[in-house]
Amino acid sequence: MLLKIQNLTKTYPNGKKALSNVNLDIPNGIFGLLGPNGAGKSSLMRTIAALQESDEGTIFLDDLNVLKQKDEVRKILGYLPQDFGFYPRVTAQDMLNHFAVLKGISNKSERKEVCDALLHQTNLYEVRDKYIGDYSGGMRQRFGIAQALLGNPRIVIVDEPTAGLDPQERNRFHNLLSEIGENVVVILSTHIVDDVKNLCNEMAIMNFGEVLYHGKTNEALNVLNGKVWQAQIAKEEVEDYRNRFKIISSKVSGGKICINTVADTQPDKAFTSVSPDLEDVYFYYINNQQK
Amino acid sequence: MFKEIFLFELKSWFKRPVIYLYFMLYLVGAFLLICAATGAFTGNTQDTNSYMNSASSIAGILNAFNSDFFLGLITTIICVSIMGSCVQKDYQYNIHSLFYSKPITKSSYLIGRFSASFLLSLFALSAIVFGLILGFAIAPNDNGQIGPFSILNYLVPFLTFTVINVFFIGVTFFSLVTYTRNLTTGYVSALVFIVISGIATSMTSDIENETLSAIIDPFGNQALSALTEYWTPSEQNERMVPLQSYVLYNRLVWLGISLLIGFVTYRNFQFSQFLNPVGLKKKKSQEEVKGMKHIQFLFQLPKAKQYFNFKTSIQQLVFLTRFEIKKIVRSVFFMVVIGIAILLMITTHNYQGLIYGTETYPVTYQMLDLGAVLSQFFLIILIIFYSGIVVWRERDNKCDELIYSTPVQTWVLFTSKFLSLVGLVGAVYGAAIITSIALQTYEGYYNYELGLYIFEYYGKRIFSAIVLCAMAAMVQVLVNNKFIGFTLTTLLTFGLQIIYNTTDINNRLIIFNSSGNVLPYSDMNGYGHTLYVFYMYKAYWIGFMMVLVALAMPMWPRLKEKSYKARVKYASKQFQRSYAFMMIIGLAMFLGFGSFIYYNTRILNEYKTNKEQEKEQVDFEKKYKTCLKDLQPRIVSSTVEVDIFPNEQGAKVKGFYYLKNKHKQPISKIYIGMFEPKDIKELKLQTQHSKIIDDAAFGFFGYKLIKPMLPGDSVRLDFTLEHFSHGFSEDGSSTDIVENGTFFNSNALPYIGYNDNMEIADNSTRKKYNLAPKPRMASIDDTTAYGNTYISKDADWIRFEATVSTIPSQIAIAPGYLEKEWESNGRKYFKYKMDRPILNFYSFLSAEYSVLKDKWINPKDPANVVNIEIYYHKNHTYNLDRMVNSTKRSLNYYTAQFSPYQHKQVRIIEFPRYASFAQSFPNTIPYSESIGFIAKVDADDPESIDFPFYVTAHEIGHQWWAHQIIGADVQGSTLMSETMSQYSALMVMEKEYGKPAMKKFLKYEMDDYLTGRAQENRKEVPLMMVENQQYIHYNKGSMIMYSLKDYIGEDSLNSAIRRYLKEKAFQEPPYTTARDFYGQIKRSTPDSLKETLSDLFERIVVFDNKVRSVTVLKTNNQYKVTLLINTGKTKSDSLGKAKDVIVNDWIDIGVFAKNVKNKDQLGKELIFKKYKIVGKEQKLEFTLDEEPYMVGIDPYNKLIDMDPDDNLKTCPKSY
Lengths: 291, 1215
Known about the structure:
Number of strands of chain B: 31
Low-confidence stretches of chain B: 279-292
Order of helices and strands of chain A: EEEHEEHEHHHEHEHEEHEHEEEH
Shape of chain A: globular
Structural class of chain A: alpha/beta
Largest sheet of chain A: 6 strands, mixed
Number of helices of chain B: 33
Oligomer: heterodimer
Strand order of the largest sheet of chain A: 6-7-8-3-9-10
Helix content of chain A: 25-40%
Distance between the termini of chain B: 61 Å
Radius of gyration of chain B: 35 Å
Number of strands of chain A: 14
Number of helices of chain A: 10
Structural class of chain B: alpha+beta
Radius of gyration of chain A: 21 Å
Largest interface: A-B, 61 and 54 residues
Mean pLDDT of chain A: 88
Distance between the termini of chain A: 37 Å
Shape of chain B: globular
Strand content of chain A: 25-35%
């Protein structure tokens, strides 16, 4: 199965360009969509989830015209949006049943069975009688994935699911995602590089509505092989270095500032070559775009 | 800091357009209101004496913006949005923590916020004043309805009412929202106030409650009316609304309550509170983190089959609808509103159907009317409110993306919302039915008509609700803002109605959700023949809504797109064949039923606007008034055959008059007219003639006789008439002939000569058409008018005979004695014949009757027997005994005191509630089901007024006072019919129930008189000159005759009456006037009371008497009572402009012992005597052997007194 996005463009009425000529081929497995806030990830995902129209372009899931056949898309979709809530004073069990009905699982006992299994799977079975409104953030996200998995979806979209979770919860969530299986297209959008590194074979980097990189996660590192240089400098020097070099990232490390830059050759003797990690790739593309 | 917060708040509001929107809304609203009320749109005006821009009138209008159901609601929404959201927004936008951590003091925060929002609300509401000023500036003033401009007339009421009201509701909203952080509580509190105000209004139907209702009305409306209700037109025009008595107390009470609420809020407010609102929220559950279970692979999950067919959609629809209904029914707002509504039903019920303070039985139709309160206001509010909630539920809870990305059909989403609103309605109806039945049970009324309840609510009213639910849901879908949606739907439901009502647009096809011209449910006639009309209109509106809904459904905000362009684009893609199908069906229904309605209301039945009617009247007058100069013969006999067809709502009449020339000159022209021109089949004057007028449109015909009628000659006029109702009409659905309860009178038959009743009576309208002003009645001294009685212009006393036929299950009745009764051709015939001449005033009735028969035997002459018959609806047996008893007592008194009864029977005949009166025809008294038949007289309460007894006595009185004595067609004549019938009934009541019952009755009469004169639109006249004004001939008449009896004694009054009857009963023209009557009274009045007599009959005199103080000294087992009384007396001109005159009258002074049974009622009379009181103040002293408890001047309220309640004073306890 292949999700094929071609020339997708969307401009909001206020003139903001959400998607600009996006082309992506997304195969089965977990696909990482990396980008800062406002990069257009959510727009892209909503467009795939039949919640938004595009101005131009096409999306096909194999033969299915995603933009035109919205009803068909909804039948095979599992979607967990970035920002969501639930009805107040409804228990997890009732809410999941609610979604199951809407997903067309008509048989009552089947519905119960699958809901219970999903609650077990997401480790929420013990608290199924609690109101979702009272759930912690991690529990909510797990519930979110439970509803997305109802009805054997063939395409699962999860938008920034781990934002704001503590490491333990994040871990749990990753485990859940990794279980979804090989035969499903899973699109995970995130601004956390580690999420992609841990979970995704393929990825894309987006910013300002454009796809900056698209390919295998491990191949992404090849782009910067031998080109990443790092220097430890004092705080006062940052300004100076910023003016002289194209700094892609900087972080505080042991009282000093650790800055990375990308260059074919050693830019300065303060820099030493380091092996690139995904974060460098990410910052490289993001910063390169900001002209 | 206060200043910063205050100014920040003001600035931020004034930067936003919404505050100007509110301002404009009020400005335009008030302006339109005035335009409508002054007739600026329609050009219709009415005669009036009162300025519409007087202070009291403006106070009333300003108040309506708080307390009126519709306007008050708008004000509530606006005030909540300003005041409530001032607090709410800090939380809503999550800036509260920021705010509260800054160094702001509590006082500067609270007071700054509140005063700013208070000022903003006042700013918005001040637009009403400007709107009013503008409206009055352009309003037409032909009839002098607008007085000179005075800014104080606006300013003082604004300060007295609006400012305090806004302060009060503001403080409450502000406090509640501060505590609960929930705007809903603000709305609920506002509803509570509007309801309290409504309850206060309904309480006043028992006048004992006036003070209480004046105090508890939060908006001061009842206080205002209690203060100003007796103001005469001239007082209304000239007086400012003073901050005194009721208004002062009311304002103080509510200002006090507001300050208290404000103070408590201030005391208890803590910034930290915002994070922990008062509520029933539970704490967050903490998950016990256990070790993760072994993770299964997801493909191992049990398989569940998904279905995406129509059956699934239906299943989802049922599921979602149930979900929504559950959510609604369990929400706090719903429960509170239902609670309030039930409470209102219960309180309103206490005052429902009160007549002279006497209750009526809670028959089902009354309970259905009661439930209408609920559906007209609360239900609409609930529907509007919940349409916003359900349509926005996913978005408000941020799960729209989750829900809308599931494979559920859009129509399922919309329909579930719509159906849940309908379910809400069903729940409310259920509550209404249960409350109604509970109330009936509570009152010991066990005739439960459950089927009727269910049909009325779930078979009828629900259809109106369905249209409204669809409209509300549709608006919420189309408008992408909940509050604009609320406002829009509110305007559509309440506002449009008002616009239509005030602009003379009288076409139900464009009055949203109209129900057609439908009869109300009556016990006698059920829903009658108009029930289907209701469904025609509903089908029309449902068709209309189907079209709109088919357009709106694809607009469901399934996508995240907010711009209209994008939504419309998406919708056009979504528009499927099924929507088109729905649209076509809807359109077909809309056009089909619309055409059918149009055909019925405009083609089958003629429709005329008010303007067109007016023009016709003018044309008729201009064309034919000249005919008045030709002398006309008089009807001397009428013989008719009337065939009534109840099921076809039709009647055929065949009959003839004999017309006689009673003049001294020959007659050569005869004019004949019909009020219903279309009913004429044939008119045939049995003498050789030529037609000179043949105006079928006006139903007016003129004949020139070849051979003039000589004095004393007679001629026969044959007529054939036919009236059948066709389809249904826009208005004025005739209730004359219905399936069960036909009642029509001789006005349906031809009249002779030009009839000036057809003319426009309103002088300001006459002026517009260049017609000379017309007096309401001819002057009492206009001898040219003595030739006619005030009820008939073409006959004196006639011979009467009628054969009435109807369907076999019914009895048909006309005046006269039943001579023969037979059946033929499947119809039942009744032949009635009158044995003596009667007025040209008779009626025809037909219905399924049960009959009660009894006899009155004259105690003084056992040979004199009168048959008593009551024809009643089978279930209405409650008061038959009272009616029979009243009939007997009346006949006893009237025959003994006045003159013999001219007939040998009295028949009381029930007719449906479409009109609520009783009317006396010769020996025949049609009596509405709604007034006496279902009265519930409390036999244990000595003050309770036996209403059926009174009405019966009054109507039987008319057999003397109208049917023996009939006044000329001039001022004062109703004195001898209505006032004398009142007097007759009063005397019978006094004999039966004693004086205590009189006091309460007379109090109502006085109240009705004083409020009636305040609304006089032409001129008030003394009783002797009464121009058919009800507040004079009934209400003042009762007071005056009772006083007069008290002054000169029952015997001498009745002997004067006897003399008068003897002289004038059954006379031929010229007819008697009030002067003759008054002359006889004068003869029986001693000289010492002649002035008093003039005050009673010839002047408009109002007293203001009170006991100022009383002291009691106890010495040697004797009590010395000293009382200081104040007296006042005014004489008014015709506009109510009062002039003080010196008191010089005989007035009752009473000292009473304590009434051991009920200390609020008067006890034994220790002293009761008339004293001559002179001047403004007088001191009186008595020495008594018994302990006094109460003293009073005019304690029984026999005089007309501006404030009858201060006439009594309780004696101080300590001596």
